[in-house]
Every structure is written in structure tokens, then in C-alpha cells.
């Protein structure tokens, strides 16, 4: 017993020096004791209060298409699609009405889900608010104006470079290794210390595009410095409460002591409130009579860079490179927030539809197929407003 206690004490000391979570949390993360949809429970979080008067969804439930587009240009049964992509929640909102809400794995409306990188889209919108308010003077501002502790070699790095993943900072997105920089960034209890250690670039800032979560970690710090308050409070005041969130949420932080938001991920909330967020984009930033987000910011973002054959990326959003068949290349294009393990807030302006899908799927798996499935769902919805 004595030896075991010594080992436990040493493990706590070692994780403290390395700025890592407690041994139980670290072991749980390493061994996947919890599914990804519950990983937020391992981390400290800053609370986000619900709206005093939540926006009420009118509910008019309808059946969805029995089949959706899937692999090899074929189709798959809708229930099989949900099962194969390990869906925990699927919500469809059309014309402002909640027309479908399903929790295939036994969750319920009050269940909390992590956003993963869907938070990047939210952070992007908060930057748009700060810009409109003059808290961020210009997207061309150097990042070191707001984060002076960033190494001087990043002197030319701008806010826009972070927003559009053009920083060139070399922190590889390798999710399959527990020893990668991105894994350490996700679990460290001192994110400011992590940033001070950055010293490598893959290209000159602004001269290329590579998807890197570290850009949005820095962007969150820019937002906090520019607004003079934690990103969590700004989210609460400028987005969460004004949009009429029915439930409180949280934003995972590195630790209670440091209190730095994992701003590249990890807003933990209910599916219906992710749907309310999507509605802001359909309604040009408005919630009822309130202009919550700048209308000009709510357009489908311009393409900053091609991530792969299926998606471009712009300002925190994934932009399908091929238009939907119905578009003919001229109608407003769909776009989506995507988080690892299959989290989506999908926006289709033409059919006035938001689809929220929250999952326990693979690391980076079936994103293009899932968007094709969403397009199948949309195509089968009633064409006009009922």
C-alpha cells in the first residue's frame, strides 16, 4: 500500500510539472474510458449562462427521407446512416421550425455534447462582433499587438492570418498520436506556456494555407485581449444569451488556475442551442428583432484555401467545393461547421435549413459523405414554407 501511495504521489507531481491533467484524467483520456462525446468531463470549464428568456422553437415534426446519398454514389437507409456514423443527435430546423429531433443512442434534449472544432466557427463570429465594435481595429492588425508574449519571429502574423489558417505555425494536426503537439495542446493545463514554446513555421505567415488548430488558440487570446474579458464572457454576452439559448453551456479551459479557453474547440452545450446558433446564419445574424451578429459577417465566407478535393476553408467554416445539384452554380451555397468525431452545424440558405449532427464517429471520417447525406435530407424537405 505504501509503495502504491508513493507512485500515486509521484504521478501527481510529474503531471503538475509537465502541465498535464491529473493522472485519473490523463489515463482516462489515453485509454478512451469515455466516448469522445463525454471527453469534456475531463477538463475544467468556464460556465456560460442561458438566456433569461429563451427563444422558443415552434415544433412541427415531419418524417425525413428514407434513404440518403452515401458511398460510391449509392444510397443508404436513413437509420443505417445514423448508425454507421455513430450519431448521438440529429436535429433539422427548416423555416425556423424544429421539424426533426432524434437521439439514436439514448441521449435527450438536456444532454451536453462537446462542439470540438465547431467552436472555431463561433469564435470567428465573435471576432466579427469585436471588429464591428472597434475592439479589434482591423483584421490586418499584427497578432503581437494583442498577444505581445508571442515570439518575435511571428511579428508579421496578422489577425486575418489566424482567422483563415494562414499563420504557417508548425503544430501538426496529428490526432492518431498521444505524443503529438496537438494532443499536448488539447490536454495541457497551461496554454500560455505552450504558446511561448512555439518556434517553427512551415511557411511565411499569409503566404499559404494549412488547417491548424493552434491558429484559433491564438485567435481566442487575441479576442480576450482586445475585448478585455475572457472569451467565455464575450460568448455569453454577445452570442449565447442574445440568441436565446435555452440552456447554459461551458467552454473548456486549460485549468481553473490559468483559465485560458481551449478556443480551438470545446464549447459544451445542448444540440438545440447549436441549432439556435445555426439559425443566426440563416437569419443574417438576427434572433427575432435583435441583430446579434453583424449581418455582413453572416454571408458564406470567402474561400481562404483548399483543404482537400471536397472542401475549401474560410473564416472558421468548411465550404463544399462542389455545389449541390439543385444549385446550378448560381444559388447561395451551403456551408458547415465541422468538429472532429462528427460534429456538424450545417447551413443551407436556399431551403432555409439548419442540420445539427453530433456524433462519436472517427477522427476525420466521412465528412464529404455526410454533407452529401445532408443534401439528400434537404432535397426531400417540403419546398415551400408550410
TrEMBL record:
SUPFAM superfamilies: beta-lactamase/transpeptidase-like. Residues 89-364 form the Beta-lactamase-related domain. It comes from the Bacteria. This is Beta-lactamase-related domain-containing protein. It comes from Herbaspirillum hiltneri N3.
Amino acid at each position: 500500500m505504501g509503495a502504491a501511495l508513493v507512485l500515486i504521489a509521484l504521478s501527481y507531481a510529474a503531471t503538475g510539472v509537465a502541465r498535464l491533467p491529473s493522472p485519473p484524467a490523463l489515463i482516462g483520456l489515453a485509454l478512451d474510458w469515455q466516448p469522445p462525446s463525454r471527453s469534456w468531463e475531463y477538463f475544467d470549464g468556464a460556465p456560460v449562462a442561458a438566456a433569461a428568456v429563451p427563444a422558443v422553437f415552434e415544433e412541427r415534426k415531419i418524417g425525413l427521407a428514407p434513404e440518403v446519398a452515401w458511398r460510391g454514389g449509392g444510397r443508404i437507409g436513413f437509420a443505417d446512416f445514423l448508425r454507421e456514423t455513430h450519431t448521438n443527435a440529429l436535429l433539422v430546423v427548416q423555416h425556423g421550425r424544429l421539424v426533426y429531433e432524434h437521439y439514436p443512442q439514448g441521449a435527450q434534449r438536456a444532454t451536453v455534447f462537446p462542439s470540438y472544432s465547431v467552436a472555431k466557427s463561433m469564435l470567428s463570429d465573435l471576432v466579427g462582433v469585436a471588429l464591428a465594435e472597434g475592439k479589434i481595429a482591423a483584421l490586418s492588425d499584427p497578432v503581437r499587438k494583442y498577444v505581445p508574449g508571442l515570439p518575435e519571429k511571428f511579428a508579421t502574423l496578422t489577425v486575418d492570418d489566424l482567422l483563415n489558417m494562414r499563420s504557417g505555425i508548425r503544430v501538426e494536426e496529428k490526432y492518431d498520436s498521444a505524443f503529438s503537439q496537438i494532443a499536448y495542446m488539447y490536454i495541457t493545463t497551461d496554454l500560455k506556456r505552450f504558446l511561448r514554446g512555439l518556434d517553427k513555421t512551415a511557411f511565411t505567415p499569409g503566404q499559404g494555407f494549412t488547417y491548424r488548430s493552434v491558429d484559433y488558440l491564438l485567435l481566442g487570446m487575441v479576442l480576450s485581449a482586445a475585448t478585455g474579458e475572457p472569451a467565455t464572457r464575450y460568448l455569453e454576452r454577445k452570442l449565447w444569451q442574445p440568441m436565446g439559448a435555452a440552456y447554459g453551456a461551458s467552454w473548456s479551459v486549460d485549468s481553473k488556475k490559468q483559465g485560458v479557453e481551449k478556443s480551438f474547440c470545446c464549447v459544451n452545450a445542448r444540440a438545440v442551442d447549436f441549432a439556435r446558433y445555426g439559425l443566426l446564419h440563416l437569419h443574417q445574424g438576427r434572433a427575432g428583432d435583435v441583430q446579434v451578429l453583424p449581418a455582413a459577417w453572416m454571408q458564406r465566407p470567402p474561400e481562404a484555401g483548399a483543404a482537400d478535393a471536397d472542401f475549401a476553408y474560410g473564416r472558421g467554416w468548411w465550404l463544399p467545393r462542389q455545389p449541390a445539384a439543385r444549385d446550378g452554380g448560381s444559388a447561395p451555397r451551403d456551408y458547415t461547421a465541422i468538429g472532429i468525431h462528427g460534429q456538424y452545424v450545417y447551413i443551407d440558405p436556399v431551403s432555409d435549413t439548419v442540420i445539427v449532427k453530433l456524433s462519436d464517429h472517427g477522427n476525420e471520417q466521412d465528412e464529404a459523405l455526410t454533407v452529401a447525406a445532408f443534401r439528400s435530407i434537404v432535397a426531400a424537405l417540403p419546398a415551400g414554407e408550410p
